[in-house]
Design a protein that fits this description.
186 residues, binds glycinamide ribonucleotide, alpha/beta, 6 helices, 7 strands, seven-stranded mixed beta sheet
Length: 186
């Protein structure tokens, strides 16, 4: 059984979709670790509900990104992690994690990359007035929301309610993340 680490900074609805997929057997893997850089983030409660161990840290307690990434990578080594899934982890992955887990890290982004990278993709696309939104899952490299694209799905929407749009995009994310993890782990 493959062992996943899921990184998140906020609500963790994608974390929950992955954890639920593993629990129900839809994904033949186990979420072995939840990594979170924000004390109090809702994802921590979700992880506890599933009985999944959490590694919660404050980047400010470390001198450099390399130092906190070393701590994360050491823990992932100890947990025998096969695949790292970023799910709303709002930091660029640095050299330490890329050197030790490069090629095994994927990210989900709520837009059709390379359009609308960054932290506010849905709002940016909505304000731009696009008619076809979407979701991208890609390999992680040193660039912001860059890296080879693994899968995408389009979400057509011509309405004017950003909350409705966000809900549609999140539903598409949850489905695509489960399908994509399954393809990767074979
Ligand atoms: C998701 O929409 C994810 O695609 C996005 O953060 C959200 C986290 O939601 N990630 C990015 O924007 C990365 N640039 P969640 O905490 O409910 O899974």
């Amino acid at each position: 059984m493959k062992r996943l680490a899921v990184f998140a900074s906020g609500s963790g609805s994608n974390f929950e979709a992955i954890a639920e997929g593993c629990k129900s057997g839809v994904i033949a893997a186990e979420v072995a670790l939840c990594v979170c850089d924000k004390a109090g983030a809702y994802v921590i409660q979700r992880a506890e509900k599933f009985g999944i161990p959490t590694l919660v840290f404050n980047p400010k307690d470390f001198g450099t990104k390399r130092e906190f990434e070393k701590m994360i990578a050491n823990r992932m080594d100890a947990e025998n992690i096969d695949l790292v899934c970023l799910a709303g982890y709002m930091r660029i992955i640095g050299d330490e994690l890329l050197e030790r887990y490069g090629g095994k890290i994927i990210n989900i982004h709520p837009a059709l990359l390379p359009a609308f990278p960054g932290a506010h993709a849905i709002k940016d696309a909505f304000e731009y007035g696009v008619k076809v939104y979407g979701v991208t899952i890609h390999e992680v490299d040193a660039t912001l929301d860059g890296g080879k694209i693994i899968s995408q799905v389009a979400v057509p929407y011509e309405g004017d309610d950003i909350d409705e749009l966000e809900a549609m995009i999140h539903r598409a994310e949850h489905k695509l993340y489960v399908e994509t993890i399954n393809k990767i782990i074979g």
